Amino acid sequence: MSPLFVITGPSATGKTAVVSALVKLFPEAGHMITTTTRPMRQGEEHGKDYWFMERSEFERAAKADEFIEWVETYGNLYGSSKVRLEDLRAKHPFVFVLLDVRGAHTYFEKVSGMQVIFIKPGNINDLKKRLAERKSSTSPEELERRAKEIKREIELAHEFSTVVTNIDGQLDQTVSEVARIVRETLAKRG
User: Fold this and answer.
1) CA 124, CA 132: separation in Å to the nearest integer?
2) What pTM was computed for the model?
3) Which of 38, 174, 184, 190 is deepest in the core (most CB within 10 A)?
4) In angstroms, what is the C-alpha Rg of the chain?
5) What whole-number distance in Å separates Cα of residue 85 and Cα of residue 94?
6) What are the pLDDT digits (tens) for 145-181?
7) H runs (alpha helix) in 40-123
């Protein structure tokens, strides 16, 4: 099976932007898209950003064991389809997966042939600022919960094999570092 590169980190660390850039840099790679019950934000597309699903349909799929992992985060359900991942691994030489920290832990336990890259913020205040900028699509209660979770997730960085710091305003440098790690890992696998 093709290798997986799991990109994880706290909310607002820029991991979505990193994965978007990686998909452009490596057009041969697959990109695992998460299923969610979260409402679609302005500019998002079904099947491109997330697979958006009604809560009842998601719960049915979870009960039928159709997800590798699933979790309720900030009042919404998120999960990774087993069938979609198998399909991506069969069609692509490697696959990028974007997950929250809990999802990355579950993948690590259940999926072989993967490397986890933890995106760590350069400054926790940068994350709080980014979360506040999402105000229009995120409730104040959710912002508060996310801000509390950030510190706990940052403390888990040492549990992952690779940590890359994303300094605010230096996304290109972060993407370059992650791309270097991907290339080196693929070269070692031959």
Assistant:
1) 13
2) 0.86
3) 174
4) 16
5) 11
6) 777 777 788 888 888 889 999 988 899 999 999 999 9
7) 55-63, 82-91, 101-110
